Amino acid sequence: METAWAHELRGAGLRVTRPRLAVLSVLAEHPHADADTIVTGARDLHPSLSPQAVYGVLKALVAGGIARRIEPAGAPALFELRVGDNHHHLVCRSCGVVADVDCAVGAAPCLSPSDAAGFVVDEAEVVFWGLCSVCHGPNRQNHQLDIRGGATA
To answer: Is residue 133 included in any domain, yes or no?
Structure first.
C-alpha cells in the first residue's frame, strides 16, 4: 500500500526515496525546523545520509510545493509542510519559537500592496514579532534559563 508521503512525492513529480521519506518524517514531527535540526533527525532515521543530501531534498521538496521555506529576519531558514494556504507566522523575539497564524483577511493574497508596481501579486508573507506567552508570562525567567540551557519552548 502506498504511503501518503509517496503519493505526495509522486504527485509533485518526485521519485520516492529513503532520504526524501526521512526528511518528510522529520518535518512532520518538527514544524518550523531549521536545516540542522532536519539533518540530525533525518540521520537518526537514515544514518548514511549526508547533510548535502538533506539540503538537496529540502530544495526539491520546496520546488515541488510539498514544503515551504520561511526566513524570519535574523534567523536561519525554517521549513514546514503547511503549504498552499498563504498562512503567516508569529515569532518570539526572546526564545525564537514560531507559530502559524491563519491569513489576516481571507483568500490569498490576504494583503495587497499600496502600489503593486506592475506585479501580479499571488502571495503575501507576513511575520509577526513579539513575545510568546511563556516569555512574557510569570515563568519567563525560568523559561529563559531553559532556552539558554538548550531546552525548547
So the answer is: yes
Q: Write down the residue that cell numbers 535574523 correspond to.
A: 74
Residue range(s) defining the domain that contains residue 12:
4-70
Q: What is the pLDDT of residue 149?
A: 38
pLDDT at residue 72 in the model: 86
Give me the sign of the Cα torsion angle 107, 111, 116, 121.
negative
77 occurs within a structural domain: no
User: What is the pLDDT, as a whole number, of residue 20?
Assistant: 96
The parts of the chain modelled with pLDDT lower than 50 are 1, 143-153
First CA to last CA distance, the chain: 37
pTM beyond 0.90: no
DSSP for the chain reads ---HHHHHHHHTT----HHHHHHHHHHHHSTTEEHHHHHHHHHHHSTT--HHHHHHHHHHHHHTTSSEEE--TTS--EEES--SS--EEEEETTT--EEEE--SSSSSSS---S--TT--------EEEE--TTTSSTTHHHHHHHHHTT---
pLDDT at 151: 38
